[in-house]
Each structure stands twice: as structure tokens, then as C-alpha cells.
Design goal:
The chain has two domains: about 100 residues, Orthogonal Bundle (Arc Repressor Mutant, subunit A), CATH 1.10.10; about 160 residues, 3-Layer(aba) Sandwich (Rossmann fold). About 5% of the residues have low confidence. Strand 1 and strand 2 form a beta hairpin. The strands form two sheets. The protein has a four-stranded parallel beta sheet with strand order 4-3-5-6. The protein is about 45% helix and about 10% strand. By secondary structure, it is an alpha/beta fold. Helix 2 packs across helix 4, helix 7 packs across helix 9 and helix 9 packs antiparallel against helix 10. It is globular. The longest helix is centred in the last third of the chain and has 23 residues.
Length: about 280
């Protein structure tokens, strides 16, 4: 990467609006976003966001793709990675890890069971589904947890009914705030997955220990309207989509993969199942 590309990339990111747009796309990576959805999350005027995206695209930090008459945008994580590599190459005589804090340099846990946290906004349905599924399908390889950024006071009754029909026990399950898992005495997380768009859109502090993260967005069944049968179908679809993802995750050879390869695989799980859900 040449010095001119580095300067352009850094100068483009050296703006509060542009870097927030880029961070939002990174949180959704590898899936793209529509500008109107980005504008709503960032509370920006469409023309302002358009200027930010144009600058980021010119710097090679985002990529636009046609989807009919619309243009979707995704973060160019490869370009961002090259920018970081360039900055760290000569750091501490080529030992970039020496320049990070002890917390940031903590290695991922390599022995089972792995601690896995699923985050949703309300922690009343989708993240609860994921917790129960991994707990029961994980073959003892994982400790499953769930939490919400703005949790409800109780679990959704349709979600409880869905889990019980599928043979999962719901005793002891409850809605929790993510702050429960950010305390000093909380278990160290190896994986953190967001399972609804609202949770991925929120800006959260980096998780201690730098766990593997991914966005496995699922349509919100709580928002389903219509008859009781139609509402039940929405919960069944959400459960089924998460079940497929959990099965794919459990089948990964976690200890046999390098961190970068593992990150790629969990991203693929989210992207592949997302395509299947909309096909």
C-alpha cells in the first residue's frame, strides 16, 4: 500500500460523520446496507450521507453495488485491513502486538467450552432462541448466553411456546441487559453475535478480550401482524433460521482454524443464511 493511499484513507476517516458511516458498515459486514437505512440509523440527511459515501468510496474504503435501481454499500474490510497493517508494520520494530494494551492483546480461548453471547435489542425472542439452540445443540462445546441492549421485562410468550414445542426447556431463562456480561466478574466471551438489526446498529464498546464477532440478523417476529397462525409462523421462521446457523456454527473446527479464517466462516454463516431467508 503506497503512502498516498494511506494518507487519503486516513484523511477520509478523519471526520466524525464519515467514520461513523464506515463503522456502521463494518458492523454489518459482510452484508451491504441501503443508504436510506443508514441515514435512518445515523440520523443524517440523505444528501449528507451520499457525500460521505462518495468520499469513502473514492478512498477505497467502501464499495457500492447495484441492486436494481438502488445502490447498496458494504465496507471494504480488505482495504481497511491493509491500512491497519501499514500503520502497524514498523510499530515497535515490527512487533505490533507490543504496542497494544494487555486487554486488547488477550488471545482467544482455545479450549472448550467456548463462551458465546447472542445480543438482541429486547432479549425476548431471537437471542433467546439462539441461546436455547446452542445450549441444546452445542454438544457441550459451548456455554450459551443472551442479552439485550434494551431488554424487555419478560420473554415473549410466542417465543416461549415455540421453544417448548421444539423440546427446549425454558426454566431459568430471562431477559438481561448486556451490562450483566460487562462486569469484571462476568465470563470472558469467545464469540459475540448480534441477531437483530437494531442491536448491530448500536455503537457498543469493544468487548474485553477481542472475541470473534458477527452479525446474524433475523427478521423480528415480534413485529409480525395478522392472525395467531401468521404470528406463530413468523416465530417459527426466526427459530428455523437461527437453528440452521447454530448447526453450521457447531460443526466448525474452532480450535483448528486461525482467527482470520474463523472470522470469515462466522461471517459466511450469517451471509449464507441471510440469503436463504430472503430467497
Amino acid at each position: 500500500m503506497n503512502i498516498h493511499s494511506v494518507i487519503r484513507g486516513l484523511s477520509t476517516l478523519a471526520h466524525p460523520g464519515r467514520i461513523e458511516a464506515f463503522r456502521l458498515l463494518v458492523r454489518h459486514a459482510p452484508q451491504p446496507m441501503r443508504p436510506r437505512d443508514m441515514a435512518a440509523v445515523l440520523r443524517l440527511k440523505p444528501n449528507t450521507l451520499s457525500n460521505y459515501l462518495s468520499d469513502l468510496e473514492a478512498a477505497g474504503l467502501v464499495q457500492g453495488q447495484r441492486d436494481g435501481r438502488a445502490v447498496l454499500y458494504r465496507a471494504n474490510t480488505d482495504a481497511a485491513g491493509r491500512l491497519i497493517d501499514f500503520l502497524a508494520l514498523d510499530c515497535c520494530r515490527g512487533r505490533a502486538f507490543s504496542c497494544t494494551s494487555g486487554e486488547g492483546a488477550t488471545a482467544m480461548t482455545t479450549q472448550e467450552p467456548f463462551n458465546v453471547l447472542f445480543i438482541c435489542s429486547g432479549n425476548s425472542a431471537r437471542s433467546i432462541f439462539a441461546e436455547a439452540l446452542l445450549r441444546d445443540l452445542g454438544k457441550g462445546r459451548c456455554n450459551a448466553y443472551s442479552a439485550g441492549t434494551k431488554p424487555h421485562s419478560e420473554l415473549n410468550p410466542y417465543a416461549i411456546a415455540m421453544l417448548e414445542r421444539a423440546g427446549h426447556t425454558t426454566a431459568g431463562m430471562e431477559a438481561k441487559n448486556i451490562s450483566v456480561f460487562q462486569r469484571p466478574d462476568a465470563p470472558a466471551m469467545d464469540f459475540v453475535f448480534t441477531v437483530c438489526d437494531r442491536a448491530a446498529d448500536e455503537t457498543c464498546q469493544p468487548w474485553p478480550g477481542q472475541p470473534i464477532t458477527a452479525h446474524w440478523g433475523v427478521a423480528d417476529p415480534v413485529k409480525a401482524s395478522g392472525t395467531e397462525a401468521e404470528k406463530g409462523l413468523a416465530f417459527s421462521r426466526a427459530y428455523s433460521e437461527l437453528r440452521h446457523r447454530i448447526i453450521a456454527f457447531v460443526e466448525l473446527s474452532i480450535t483448528g482454524l486461525q482467527r482470520q479464517a474463523l472470522q470469515h466462516r462466522v461471517d459466511e454463516i450469517g451471509a449464507d443464511q441471510g440469503k436463504a431467508a430472503t430467497s
